[in-house]
Every structure is written in structure tokens, then in C-alpha cells.
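COMPLEX REQUEST
Ligand: fe (ii) ion
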Amino acid sequence: MSIPVLDFSAYELGKANVSDADLEKLTKELRKAFIEVEKVMSVSKKFFSLPENKKKPFSRGSFSCNVNHGWVSLETERHNWPSEGVDDFQDAQVKFFHRCKELALKVLRLMAVGLGLDSEVFVNEHKHIGSHMNATSLRSLYYPPVDSTRVKENQVRCGEHSDYGSITLLFQSTEGGLQVQNRAEEFVSAPCIPGTVLVNIADLMQRWTSDVYVSVVHRVLLPPAGVSRTRQSLAFFVQPDDESVITCCDGSDKYPPIKSVDYLLSRFNDTYGKKTNLV
Ligand SMILES: O=C(O)CCC(=O)C(=O)O
Ligand SMILES: [Fe+2]
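STATUS: Structure written out below.
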């Protein structure tokens, strides 16, 4: 699976007017990037694994509507706070935090519309980003150069996990190293395209949408032996407001309602030691 790359310029930060048509187009692309690509991949895979005689009736050339439609058999075709010591650290981080917040709200709007929901459904539960009533955080990561003679067994840069909140905006340096798991449970390398922001669906969003938007398992491996390269990234972990109760938006009871802060704390306990039981 390749990771979809969308042009967000129609709805970029600071843009005052966005036409309904542009917004609708971007909403569809976003929905497709989050859901439909995987769907198409999986049905295609099913089709390809059928026996030859089941595929033949759908061969290219047998559709009167379009000569190019249809299946082509093999071999047919020839063709990633310190306020002292670093000037402007705090100022830069705070400004960046607010820009991320605005971008995240935009993405959340489109995600809601993409599900046929009111555009503000998710945004309404993210009213307090940047205050003590919301746990959204900006994490700045730097992975130092690696001395391959001192690497421990099975050591990685960041172990496989999915993020806890609604979405994560990830900004990565060009060295790469991030891998994301597709629905076939294979890890694929995320490309580092300058100027792009990687959007990860996180676990609360998966619960919220009853598994329509599925959270992504990801990891960062060490560079190959002998390669000392560093990695730097900025992760903006978007979390619903502490007191928001996340309930399946399709009205189902696939996941029981849970308070955002309770969910986050239980996940932190799991990550940092204590075990909690959640449904
Ligand atoms: O270095 C990265 O880009 C991954 C960081 C990450 O996944 C995390 O902190 O949750
Ligand atoms: Fe992560």
C-alpha cells in the first residue's frame, strides 16, 4: 500500500474563503485516503486470488462501455522546552502549537463531513486545545546517531504502537525511518515528502467512528548497521477535551462511552507500567 498524499491548499491555514466545491472535493479525497484505499486494496486482492477461469469473464475487452476496462492477465502487457539555552524555543513551540491546532481542527471537520456527519461533530469535542482542560500535546523527537557496535538486541527507535487520541499530525525530517502498518499487517515505510504533514488516525477516533477510521500502528526502526543517521520529528497529538465522553457516532454500542481523560490515563498507565482494564 502506498500512503496517500493530499493537496490541502484549498483549505490551507490563513485562507479566508474556500468554495463549497473545493471543500467537497477535499473532503472526498480525505475520506478516500482514510478508508477507501484500503477497501479497494482488499477487494482487488480478493479478485486477484481467484482462479483464472473465474477472472476470465472480466477480461479487458469484454466490456462494451469501455474497451480499457477489465482484467489483464500476467505477462500480457509489454511496459519521517527548554526556555533557556535555546533562543526563541518557547515562542517557536507555542506558535507552532497554535498552527497545528488550527490545522487539526480543519482536518477534523473534513473527517466528520466525510462520514456524512455535521462538520462540527468532532471539533465540538476539541474546544479546549491549548488549555488545562485538554491534553493535546506537541512532542518534539530527536533520535541521536546510532553506534551499531552498542546496539541492544531487538532495539528500535520507537516500538510499534498506535497513538491514543483522535488524530496525530506528524512532521518529519527527511532521514525517514517511520513505518506504518497497513491492513494486511505489513509495515511499509512512510515517505518523507518535504512540506507534507502525515496524519495518523489514533485510537479514540477509531472508537468514536466504530472502526470506520482505523488507528494506525507505526514504529521507527534503527537505521541499518553502519549507518549513523539521526531522525527528528514533531508529533502533535490531538486529544478530545478531558471531559468529553466519546460515544460511537453511528449510535452503535461497539465501544462503551468513555471519558477522554480516563481513556488517556489508562493508556499512559499501560505504556508507563501500571496495567488498567478497559473494554
Ligand atoms: O519519530 C516518529 O516520527 C514517531 C513518533 C511516534 O510515533 C510517537 O511519539 O508516538
Ligand atoms: Fe506514535
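REMARKS: Residues 18-272 form a domain with the Jelly Rolls fold (CATH 2.60.120.330). Residues 20-48 form the longest helix (29 residues).
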